[in-house]
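User: Just a sanity check before I run the rest of the batch. Below are the structure tokens for the first item. I only need the designed sequence back.
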């Protein structure tokens, strides 16, 4: 299982790649132009007969989705596969699949009405993106926020109760690795990688006295990556081992 890469973001140079395998560093220093992380760019790396596809957007009917589908039709091994990305970004399905893989997940409910607060809510409709969740507090305008998430009540939403002492923790996973992981996040990222095989994804967890529980998986914009995270992505794409 991949381990977290312990790279303090507050210490970039001179040793930016502390904890990263030395062969990654050599490849990165060559400055391969094919690893430029520009908006909407899609990148591929092949290992042991599997094509790994890195994208900002794996959603249904996206360019990445059709690229994956095309390779599956050709009989090629590709990661993530189409079923994994369809499962990953619909919160209830994501949590059920993760649970089947032995990953601790948040308790959830599906509703179209008011719910106990505080809670995290995710939209469940064709246009919903897991990155755009809402956190309902006791003093929040609950009805207005639910109206926004449900498109004026047309669609249901998924809610997760925030108990006392529970907070939201978010980390970017790159081939199952996270830069500067907190307690338990390195293990969580590795287990999610084994379950979904998504090279670039944000992990949203509920962190409390019982540890981390998966709340959702979200797409990641290249522009939101830290310098260290971009370096890890480029290193992985430069023809070096990452599994």
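Assistant: Here's the designed sequence for the first item:
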């Amino acid at each position: 299982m991949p381990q977290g890469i312990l790279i303090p973001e507050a210490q970039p140079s001179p040793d930016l790649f502390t904890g990263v395998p030395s062969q990654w560093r050599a490849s990165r220093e060559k400055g391969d132009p094919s690893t430029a992380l520009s908006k909407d760019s899609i990148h591929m790396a092949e290992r042991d007969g599997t094509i790994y596809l890195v994208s900002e957007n794996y959603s249904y009917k996206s360019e990445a989705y059709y690229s994956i589908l095309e390779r599956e039709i050709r009989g090629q091994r590709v990661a993530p596969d189409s079923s994994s990305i369809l499962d990953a970004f619909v919160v209830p399905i994501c949590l059920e699949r993760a649970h089947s893989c032995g990953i601790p997940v948040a308790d959830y409910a599906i509703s179209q009405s008011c719910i106990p607060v505080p809670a995290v809510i995710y939209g469940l409709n064709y246009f919903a993106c897991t990155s755009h969740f809402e956190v309902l507090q006791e003093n929040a305008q609950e009805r207005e926020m639910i109206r926004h998430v449900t498109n004026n009540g047309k669609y249901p939403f998924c809610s997760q109760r925030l108990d006392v002492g529970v907070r939201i923790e978010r980390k970017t996973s790159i081939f199952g690795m996270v830069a500067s992981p907190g307690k338990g996040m390195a293990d969580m990222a590795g287990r999610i990688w084994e379950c979904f095989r998504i090279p670039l994804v944000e992990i949203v967890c509920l962190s409390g006295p019982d540890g981390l529980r998966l709340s959702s998986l979200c797409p990641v914009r290249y522009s939101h990556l830290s310098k260290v995270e971009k370096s890890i992505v480029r290193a992985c794409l430069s023809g070096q081992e990452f599994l």
